[in-house]
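User: I'm putting together notes for a lab meeting next week and I want to include a structural view of one of the chains we've been expressing. I don't have a solved structure, so I'd like a prediction I can at least talk through. The sequence is below, exactly as it appears in our construct file.
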Amino acid sequence: MKDKIRIASGQGFWGDLLSAPVDQVTKGPIDYMMMDYLAEVTMSIMQKQKMKDPTLGYAKDLIPLMEQILPACVEKNIKVITNGGGVNPQACRDAIFKVAGKLGIKGLKIGVVSGDNILNCLDELRQKGIDLKNMETGESLDAVRERIVSANIYFGARPIVEALRQGAQIIITGRTTDTALTYAPMIHEFGWSWNDWDKLAVGVVAGHILECGGQASGGNFSADWKAVPDLAHIGFPIAEAYPSGEMIITKHEKTGGMVTVQTVSEQLLYEIGDPTNYITPECIADFTTIKLEQSGKDRVKLSGVKGKPNTNLYKVSMSYSDGYTAISTLTYAWPDALEKAKKSDEILRTRLADLGLKFDEIRTEFLGLNSCHGLIADMPNIINEVVLRVGVRSHDYNAVERFGKEIAPLILTGPPAVTGFAGGRPKPSEVIAYWPALIPKNAINPQVVVTEV
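Assistant: Thanks for the context. Below is the predicted structure for the 453-residue chain, given as structure tokens.
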């Protein structure tokens, strides 16, 4: 058993800072790197990509990145765990094997965790009495069944631990809980029991701190963002874990950003519902028991975390098609910029009503004035310029399309001094809505396959 392991955060979402994982494997010692690519809407995007091309459906950014870092990972024996496999982890594995071949790397073991994608099993599951009703509204899946685009189960750490046990250096999963990417190595390396709830919970908390990348090391920092040094070269967080359950959150030396009790605290509050019941497949963590202590420069000690037994359910993330939307902008200049923008909005709405078009929602924002704070924002009249942004949403494709044809005419048939219309008419894009559900754990089994090339 190792006396400690260092688990680095490499990505917090699909599209995150591409230099971060390179820095993590080259600027200091680490044993593992987790990379989180998935969000609820990401799964639907990947599913559509796969439907068009069966070789796609994963985070394509991952492949050129692996070409950069794979030699260093092999040389230093750094293991990479990522959910970048999306809805096609097998294709992602094959693409990485091609990279390894190009680099002349042999003996690489890649583990794939699959079984989370239940899109083609929905009717079979329902025949077995598993309704997959909306866990927030209680609605039956019947309401949206024909419009379902993606359906994926949130697996936990168990299949990742199994892949590590089989010797995988790179592990690619589908829809796995973000936190599992971090605490699975702790369970594997330290032999933690699956019912040692407190140790599992501290791993879960560490995973939550790492899952959003640089947000725990000074990025998106609300308390005193001006005090964060060298954000241009921010160092992503690292969890330094010990067999006892002691945990230190840190980062590489000589990188930007900072790790303090405040930066870590802000991340701990991010995307939290009931803080006493943070539910994961392996345990329930009580975030109200967390103690943080500054134990050195860029070192925050995590302790006191209490855990509770896990549930017998997995969460299911589904998405469905829910109509269409289009958004457009126009910029109005001084004098009377805001008054012009408001009048233009009034004219547009009148013309849409005259056409008899029906929308589920028409939303107007004046960028720089109220797009963040809405109705409670102050609306001064003396300003240099205003960007009018108008969006519509409807299940009627033709209505949304016609909205796009009513924007350009405002330039010469509305208030003066307007600019900023570029890129042509706004085109309808599909609205994807979220459907959360629960499923008994005994209804689904994850599959783990480790392959060597």
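A couple of points you could mention at the meeting. Residues 5-116+154-311 form one domain. The longest strand covers residues 313-333.

User: Perfect, that's what I needed.
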